[in-house]
Design brief:
CATH superfamily of chain A: Cytochrome c oxidase, subunit III, four-helix bundle
CATH class of chain A: Mainly Alpha
CATH topology of chain B: Cytochrome C Oxidase, Chain A
Largest sheet of chain A: none
Radius of gyration of chain B: 25 Å
Order of helices and strands of chain B: HHHHHHHHEEHHHHHHHHHH
Largest sheet of chain B: 2 strands, antiparallel
Largest interface: A-B, 41 and 52 residues
Structural class of chain B: mainly alpha
Number of strands of chain A: 0
Number of domains of chain A: 1
Number of domains of chain B: 1
Strand order of the largest sheet of chain B: 1-2
Distance between the termini of chain B: 32 Å
Strand content of chain A: under 5%
Radius of gyration of chain A: 20 Å
Oligomer: heterodimer
Chain lengths: 193, 624
């Protein structure tokens, strides 16, 4: 009798995952495909020649640093939530949100620097690609900031704690993904610009 | 730790509780903004039928031009207005718009949204034993994105400059420059916006289908006990999830080229002797991006139809499906291969011949899993106790189209022969048979088969037979002659052939094709009548009209919100126990435990009885 029930539990645990978390991972797959196709289009196009080469502004290192830091603070928020450290979740999520906005501001500032360098959206595809890649990534960051604000709201209502982790877990996953995605794009651009 | 577990169970219980009751439903929440998967499926189906009729009508209009180039078409003026010239002919640019919109509508709006949207939504929860989709809200959103996208595409048909006219593949520079063709103006913009929304709809749907299949299966419904329909939908959703984002990228870059002046796809273009400012783009890049979606797309169209027909053929042959694992394996193999063959659409773009032969070999390998599927269909039918229901006839029609259309794929997949056949009517004949007609038949078969579950009534079988024979014969009459026209070198998308001496023959054959096309379209009205008439006047359906094994037939005849009034049945066996030796009846549904069928169990199944127990919590684990 008891052994039957055990088998059931084992089987169920193996197979199912929280549907929303699973859905988030599938969404991440679609975003990966978008950027994989754009970066491979970049390579294909670059191989054809007639490619305008320019230096990436050094400030890109700074924005990349910011996004790495925001990932760290996001993880701090997640660990605090796990340990029911309600005050530090608030601080950590707030820091993450501020860093995220800072990153966006930095990216827009870099667009300005590129324009000063005579790299425009309209013109040689090498510049167009840079704007498209960073712009599309920026749009995803905006969606991430909205998600962060939702989590921030629920932390201030004390709804995020070790027994209600799904939301902050999903936000952490998404935020780490967006950070990793930018690092990938940055390294890709460093190697292929 | 223990508290956390209890918390989670409470939450799931709460969810289940919510779905059990119809809470405060009114017209809007029941029929319009419904989150119930069955209603959403019906919404997709009805919208799909509307689009299919429209797409079919467009094709008949351009077939009139091709079959009867001398005919006076002034009588169409009330519908088409100035698209009929003062000589009573179809405007040549409008002809291109017709071809483009026919392709777009049929591929995306009918055979992707209409097919996957209807049957994935309807059957996934019912066949895996779930109360609803993982996220009913996302599901509703998926339909409404599709709806808005449909409205935009439909509106583009009525604007002054005409809808998109660059072909459904929208190759730039034709689609990028309004100077090239009037349809590339506002019509193309609307096409792109509509498709972007469509992609969002498909992705929302796909995420839901995959999540539901993996996470919400009932007790005992292991992957090896899933009906093949679910396997078909599962692979379709995965393929869509991986390929539609790539179309999104392609469309995004095209939008930037068109509206913001970038040069991703444009370079060295002169119009009336004047050079455009765009420099450094590559139109071939678009083709790579497009066909990376475009090829998987044809499998997105056919895989659900495969799933549906596998189920119908097995049920109505009263035999287990031949080679269940081979069927799943071939679906998987086709899905994998679909991503590495896209360049066979581009053999004549000047690609490296070595690369061409790599893609050629990969393309020809698809014949292997396809042949496995055909072999298994035929061996399931072989010596079966066949019941010729309309659904069964349409499923067998699919097998027929898949064979005759698939064989020509081998010719087209060979780079050397493709140089001769590329962009001729041979290609048109090939893909209309293997992908268009085959998956259309799969869709219609599904409607006939699951209509009793959808509306609680039966469709009229006699009208179904008439519909089948007219469609089946009509489709072969349309597409078989096209092979000859194609081999003779007739290119697709040409407005008129009578102006060229070299292409001045085959007018009789073209006329036959056009007459057959009109016949085939007319036959669909029998279906439309049957569909809507049976909704109110049809014979009331019994609980399990086809004596089928899958779980959807264990629900009430008109399943409510939450599908099963009580507990969801537990699954003990695979879905294909038809005509099992020794069994009382010729079918044993999936929820019957082995302990109740001692007379027909195999030895290894008797072993599984021990695991069943009387406790409702116990299940049979897929034994190794």
């Amino acid at each position: 009798m008891t052994s039957d029930i055990k088998i059931v539990d084992d089987a169920k645990k193996q197979l199912s995952m929280h549907p929303k978390k699973f859905g988030l991972w599938l969404f991440i797959v679609t975003v990966v495909m978008i950027f994989a196709s754009l970066t491979s289009a970049y390579i294909v196009r670059q191989a054809e020649g007639n490619w305008f080469v320019f230096e990436l502004p050094w400030q890109m290192w700074a924005t990349s640093g910011i996004i790495v830091l925001s990932s760290v603070s996001m993880h701090w928020a997640y660990i605090s939530a796990k340990r029911d450290n309600l005050e530090s979740i608030k601080i950590a999520i707030s820091i993450t949100t501020i860093l995220a906005v800072l990153f966006l501001v930095g990216q827009v500032y870099i667009w300005g620097l590129l324009v000063d360098e005579n790299v425009f959206l309209v013109g040689n595809p090498s510049g167009s690609f840079l704007y498209i890649l960073s712009g599309l990534h920026g749009l995803h960051i905006v969606s991430g900031v909205i998600f962060l604000l939702i989590v921030l709201n629920s932390t201030f209502k004390y709804k995020t704690h070790s027994k209600n982790l799904v939301q902050i877990e999903m936000c952490t996953t998404y935020w780490h993904f967006l950070g990793g995605l930018w690092i990938y794009l940055f390294i890709f651009l460093l190697l292929n610009h | 730790m223990a508290t956390a577990d209890i918390h989670i169970t409470e939450e799931t219980h709460h969810d289940g509780h919510e779905h059990d009751h119809d809470h405060g439903s009114n017209f809007w929440t029941t029929y319009i903004f419904s989150t119930d998967h069955k209603m959403i499926a019906k919404q997709f189906l009805i919208t799909g039928i509307f689009w299919a009729l429209l797409g079919g009508t467009l094709s008949v209009i351009f077939r009139l031009q091709l079959g009867f180039p001398e005919a006076e078409l002034g009588w169409l003026r009330p519908f088409l207005g100035d698209w009929i010239t003062s000589q009573g002919k179809i405007d040549p640019e409008f002809y291109l718009a017709l071809v483009t919109m026919h392709g777009t509508i049929m591929v995306f709006f009918v055979l992707t949204a209409g097919l996957s949207g209807t049957f994935s939504n309807f059957l996934i929860p019912l066949q895996i034993g779930a109360r609803d989709m993982a996220s009913g809200f996302m599901n509703m959103l998926s339909y409404w994105f599709f709806f808005v996208s449909s409205i935009i595409m439909l509106t583009s048909l009525f604007i002054e400059t005409g809808p998109a006219s660059g072909g459904w593949v929208i190759y730039p520079p034709l689609s990028a420059l309004p100077q090239a063709i009037s349809g590339s103006g506002l019509g193309m913009t609307m096409w792109l916006v509509s498709m972007a929304l469509f992609i969002i709809s498909t992705l929302l749907g796909g995420i839901n289908y995959i999540t539901t299949i993996i996470n919400l299966r009932t007790k005992g419904m292991s992957f090896s006990k899933l009906p093949l329909t679910i396997w078909g939908f599962f692979f379709t959703a995965i393929v869509g999830l991986l390929s539609f984002p790539v179309l999104f990228s392609a469309v995004l870059l095209l939008i930037f080229d068109r509206s913001f002046g970038t040069s991703f796809y444009l370079s060295d273009i002169y119009i009336n002797g004047e050079a455009l400012p765009n420099q450094g783009g590559s139109p071939i890049l678009f083709q790579h991006l497009f066909w990376f979606l475009g090829h998987p797309e044809v499998y997105i169209v056919i895989l659900p139809a495969f799933g549906i027909t596998s189920e119908i053929i097995s049920t109505n042959s009263r035999k287990p499906i031949f080679g269940y694992k081979a069927m799943v394996g071939s679906l998987l193999f086709i899905s994998l291969l679909s991503f590495v063959v896209w360049a066979h659409h581009m053999f004549v773009t000047g690609m490296n011949p070595f690369l061409g032969s790599v893609f050629m070999i990969l393309t020809l390998i698809i014949a292997v899993p396809s042949a496995v599927k055909v072999f298994n269909y035929l061996t399931t039918l072989w010596k079966g106790n066949i019941r010729f229901t309309p659904a069964m006839l349409f499923s067998m029609g699919l097998v027929s189209f898949f064979i005759s259309g698939g064989i020509t794929g081998i010719f087209l997949g060979s780079a050397a022969i493709d140089i001769q056949l590329h962009d001729t009517y041979f290609v048109v004949a090939h893909f209309h048979l293997v992908m268009g007609s085959a998956s259309f038949f799969g869709m219609v078969a599904g409607v006939y088969h699951w209509y009793p579950k959808m509306f609680g009534r039966m469709m009229d079988a006699k009208l179904g037979y008439i519909h089948f024979w007219l469609s089946f014969i009509g489709i072969y009459l349309v597409f078989f002659p096209m092979h000859y026209i194609g081999i003779a070198g007739y290119p697709r998308r040409y407005y008129s052939f009578t102006n060229f001496d070299a292409l001045n023959s085959f007018t009789d054959l073209n006329m036959l094709v056009s007459i057959a096309a009109i016949l085939t379209l007319s036959a669909q009205f029998i279906f439309i009548f049957n569909f809507f008439h049976s909704m109110w006047r049809g014979r009331r359906a019994p609980a399990n009209p086809w004596e089928s094994n899958t779980l959807e037939w264990t629900t009430p005849i008109n399943p409510g919100h939450g599908n099963w009034p009580g507990e969801i049945p537990t699954v003990y066996r695979w879905p294909y126990d038809y005509s099992k030796p020794g069994a009382e009846k010729d079918f044993i549904p999936q929820h019957i435990p082995f302990s109740e069928t001692l007379e027909s169990n195999f030895e290894q199944e008797n072993e599984l009885i021990k695991l069943e127990g009387t406790d409702s919590k116990a299940i049979v684990i897929d034994g190794k």
